[in-house]
Write a structure and sequence with these properties.
The protein has 410 residues and is an all-alpha fold. It has one domain. It contains 16 helices and no strands. Helix 3 packs antiparallel against helix 4, helix 6 runs parallel beside helix 8 and helix 9 packs parallel to helix 15. The longest helix has 37 residues.
């Protein structure tokens, strides 16, 4: 929605959003361990019959999220001009990117609390509450974006502010549910240094794993920037649609996290294997369907994002490539979820480093030799959604074939 609303402010605004959202999502993405590690830990304790302990893990994770959110929001607001400058954008694109980052920065507190609270509820096998809050948040965010950008004429600043306000509201809603559950179970609501440190320690391998993933995404944006405004604007839309598909496919990964964690906590290895097999089937199948729909319909939805014919063409051809690679993504995301649910973060950290090493020279070659415009976006999309995702598929697939990741108990 951000991309659709901002895209009609002009190519520079859409390119600025590409830079800003890449930076913002990198900050949030590095903290995704707040959800993933919490889901796995809560699910294990629930599987072992320790409901108060499960909710205590969730409360500690929320305190960690709040602390990190305050620090990172302040840091991002201050460092926004420098961060955007490092990406090498022209003056107008850089100005738009800095504006979006500064207006959206306060929402980081909400974004991280949403991660921790959602991870807790998923670990408790409650996926309906996060769904309800997410749907409500999406609707509210859409209305706020249109009202602030076009109604109050705030431009790209309105888009950033709308996102920040929505995330803070979602955080309050989800935190309220977790706090109510903790009180019912008799868990403490006070910040406990030991519990907060344990949450941080368990999340460190996933932080390292996510750092390699976000490094690849930032590198991709940097390459797109070097190929010109048309490529960068097209990349923003392609990456946004890819991200939408990734969230859809990630639903299966998150189901795998919660179910695998619960099964291993209960010591049920055969059920763990069954979950792995079934979620992989669904992941690849869903990837095929999403690839056909999003790739085949690109010419229909590209005009929703921009009136620039060159950017529209770049979006269409970029999405055709991304659609072809979507089944690979379905496989990768599910295996990620299975291994995260098993607490196999250390392996994922090393695997992430290997895949990044494989991807870097390919991305640099695209920057050096690919032409600007639509053709450049085709090569860049093929490098990321093809080469990078295949490398992730190979490493996680190799691990899943063995048994070292199936550690039972709490």
């Amino acid at each position: 929605m951000d991309s659709a609303v901002v895209g009609h402010l002009g190519t520079s605004a859409l390119a600025g959003l590409a830079l800003a959202s890449s930076v913002l999502l990198t900050v949030v993405g590095l903290c995704v361990f707040l959800a993933y590690a919490t889901t796995a830990s809560v699910a294990r304790r629930l599987g072992a019959g320790d409901s108060p302990g499960a909710l205590q893990v969730g409360v500690d994770g929320m305190w960690l999220a709040f602390t990190l959110g305050v620090v990172l929001a302040a840091g991002l607001w201050i460092a926004a001009p420098w961060v955007v400058g490092v990406m090498g954008a022209d003056d107008e694109t850089a100005r738009q990117a800095v504006t979006y980052l500064r207006w959206s920065a306060p929402g980081l507190v909400g974004m991280l609390l949403v991660l921790a609270a959602t991870g807790t509820l998923r670990g408790l096998q409650d996926t309906r509450t996060p769904l309800g809050v997410a749907v409500t948040g999406a609707v509210v965010n859409s209305v706020l974006n249109v009202f602030l950008v076009w109604g109050l004429h705030l431009g790209i600043a309105g888009s950033g502010a709308g996102t920040a306000l929505t995330q803070l509201g979602m955080a309050v809603a989800l935190a309220t549910v977790v706090v109510r559950g903790a009180r019912t179970a008799g868990s403490s609501l006070r910040p406990a240094a030991g519990g907060i440190w344990a949450s941080a320690r368990h999340g460190l391998p996933l932080l390292a794993r996510t750092a390699t993933l976000r490094g690849a995404i930032l590198l991709t944006t940097w390459v797109a920037t070097g190929l010109g405004a048309v490529t960068l604007a097209g990349h923003q839309v392609v990456s946004s649609v890819w991200g939408l598909a990734a969230f859809a496919l990630d639903a299966l990964a998150i189901a795998a996290q919660a179910l695998v964690g619960h099964a291993l906590g209960a010591g049920d290895v055969p059920r763990t294997r069954g979950i792995l097999r079934r979620t992989l089937q669904w992941g690849v199948g869903a990837g095929v369907v999403l690839g056909l729909v999003l790739g085949g319909a690109a010419a229909l939805y590209a005009p929703l994002f921009t009136s620039d014919d060159e950017v529209r063409h770049a979006i269409v051809v970029g999405m055709l490539v991304a659609g072809l690679c979507m089944p690979i993504a379905g496989w990768v995301f599910v295996l990620d979820g299975v291994l995260i649910g098993a607490g196999d973060g250390r392996f994922l950290a090393w695997a992430g480093l290997v895949t990044l090493v494989v991807y870097v020279p390919v991305a640099l070659a695209v920057r050096a030799y690919a032409p600007a415009g639509a053709e450049g976006l085709v090569w860049l999309t093929a490098a990321f959604s093809g080469v990078f995702m295949l490398a992730r598929a190979a490493t996680t697939g190799y691990r899943a074939r063995g048994t070292a990741w199936m550690v039972t108990g709490t």
